[in-house]
């Protein structure tokens, strides 16, 4: 039995939404990783050179990045399941 054209259309739209979400997630990940690199390799050393204590900011950023990383890991796990 052949599926209706509506089902093909729904499948097509679902695949497009999935690919758009992956592209957006890639751009978001690139932005976060760039921010982490800039802070860790440029801003933090400059602040330390000026004698400014960054331990509170470091702790807050590390905590936020850990939450982001857990979310990213979960999304990647879902993606692996969908790719099967």
Provide structural commentary:
This protein is an all-alpha fold. Helix content is 88%, strand content 0%. The protein has helices at residues 5-49, 55-83. It starts with a helix and ends with a helix. The mean pLDDT is 92.
Question: How are the secondary structure elements laid out?
Answer:
Elements lengths: L4 H45 L5 H29 L1
Please give the largest β-sheet.
none
What percentage of amino acids are in beta strands? under 5%
- Low-confidence runs (pLDDT<50, min 5 residues)? none
- State the order of secondary-structure elements, H for helix, E for strand: HH
Mean pLDDT: 92
Helix and strand composition category: mainly alpha
| Mass-distribution shape | elongated
Q: What radius of gyration results from the CA coordinates? A: 20 Å
Gap between N and C termini, in Å? 25 Å
Helix segment count? 2
Number of domains: 1
Fraction of residues in H or I helices: over 70%
Count of strand segments? 0
